[in-house]
């Protein structure tokens, strides 16, 4: 299927919550693969967080579907608040100026995934660009598993740079923390 036959739409929190099944399908399929190998219980936990995240007024999502409505990719996030713990997870502290948050400065890209059959067709980039098109932030922050070589390569190609290593949640493997300056 060509890229032009894939539709990418932007969603606010309410619309994303209504499309939870589509987001979950993409997430569960993509993150069942190595290096993630997420279990059904881990997917369920992610979607308990998703429900809370979609209630944020600043939540932004993007969903990619085929012409007949099959979900093929998703992305979502929201600006980091002043009390975010994101920076606290880094193994090596970063300068105070880097970690300063005010609820607008940094957009946290929580998830971006594309189902296997639609990878390497530009869908991830379209999701990323659609999601960020209306974001009013100086920068974007994300965590990525370093063994997810395609994801790391894509983020680098899009201008992200690694700023540290972190265990983003208790028991998580080490992830690269990457930052994109939106300038």
Q: What does this 3D model show about the protein?
A:
The protein is of the alpha+beta class. It is 31% helix and 27% strand. The chain contains six helices and seven strands, in the order βαααββαβαβαββ. The chain has helices spanning 13-18, 20-32, 40-54, 96-99, 123-132, 149-157, and strands at 7-12, 60-65, 71-79, 106-114, 139-144, 161-166, 175-181. The chain has a seven-stranded mixed beta sheet with strand order 1-2-3-4-5-7-6. A hairpin with a 5-residue loop joins strand 2 (60-65) and strand 3. Helix 2 (20-32) runs antiparallel to helix 3.
Q: Which characteristics define this entry?
A:
single chain; alpha+beta; 7-stranded mixed β-sheet
Strand order of the largest sheet: 1-2-3-4-5-7-6
| Integer average pLDDT | 95
Kindly name the structural category: alpha+beta
**Based on DSSP secondary structure assignment, what is the total number of beta strands?**
7
Q: Regions with pLDDT < 50 over 5+ consecutive residues?
A: none
What is the beta-strand fraction? 25-35%
Radius of gyration: 16 Å
Report on the biggest sheet: 7 strands, mixed
Structure annotation, total helices: 6
Helical residue percent band: 25-40%
Shape: globular
C-alpha end-to-end distance: 34 Å
What is the element string, with H for helices and E for strands?
EHHHEEHEHEHEE
């Amino acid at each position: 299927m060509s890229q032009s036959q894939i539709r990418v739409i932007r969603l606010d929190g309410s619309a994303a919550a209504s499309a939870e099944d589509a987001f979950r399908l993409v997430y569960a399929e993509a993150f069942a693969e190595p290096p993630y190998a997420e279990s059904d219980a881990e997917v369920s936990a992610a979607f308990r967080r998703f429900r809370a995240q979609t209630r944020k007024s600043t939540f932004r999502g993007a969903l990619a579907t085929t012409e007949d409505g099959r979900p093929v990719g998703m992305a979502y996030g929201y600006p980091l608040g002043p009390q975010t713990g994101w920076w606290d997870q880094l193994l090596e502290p970063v300068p105070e100026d880097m970690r300063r948050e005010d609820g607008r400065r940094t957009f946290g890209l929580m998830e971006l995934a594309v189902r296997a059959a639609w990878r390497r067709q530009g869908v991830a980039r379209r999701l990323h660009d659609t999601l960020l098109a209306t974001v009013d932030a100086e920068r974007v922050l994300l965590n990525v598993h370093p063994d997810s070589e395609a994801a790391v390569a894509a983020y680098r190609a899009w201008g992200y740079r690694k700023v540290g290593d972190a265990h983003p949640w208790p028991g998580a493997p080490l992830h690269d923390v990457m930052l994109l300056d939106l300038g």
